[in-house]
């Protein structure tokens, strides 16, 4: 379990977050909570559910929701199991990723992931929606390209986003999987993420986080478009 120091304070909210690397893909399953209420959300429980449950226990928070950034197996493989274990709703991704959630078992079989199930979220998300946990509210942005239904969660008070596999430190999401499109992905980044502001920090689906400003200046996939 890796500590992620994204606790920030504003006049309205204070949040904490930890990252729990899961699956052979080392996917950043993220637990974010409202410090005041200790109410929490698990973002992208890709697998290794016992490890996620232990992290929740150690953190001492109460998970009330599961949010999904997109439908790839390394991000959703443990979602149905965790939903059952915690009796909480799943929100996201965008309905354009329904074909991925309908084929979780088939996708998991390719990587030896046997304890996975096809499922449907309790709520599909779309551009302009908002999701909340405790006193924290996140705006939802539909950012297709890595997958057709990828979404990003942004809290404007904390100047923080969870971007899934849309954008990485020094890179962008792969687009060679079915439903991926590089031009669409770059458009999502340029029109949805960069306008959030250079001061916005983010957690991504794999590897270290970064900031919008850092990526605007140094990410070759972005600088080449400017």
> Strands across the major sheet, in which order?
1-2-3-4-5-6
Proportion of β residues?
Answer: 25-35%
Number of strands: 14
Q: Report mean pLDDT, rounded to a whole number.
A: 94
Structural category is: alpha+beta
Low-confidence stretches: 1-11
Domain tally: 1
Instruction: Examine the coordinates and then state which fold CATH places here, giving the name of the CATH topology.
Output: Metallo-beta-lactamase, Chain A
Radius of gyration: 16 Å
Write the element-wise H/E pattern from the N-terminal end onward. Answer: EEEEHEHHEHHEEEEEEHEEHH
Sheet with most strands: 6 strands, mixed
* Oligomerization category of the chains in this entry: single chain
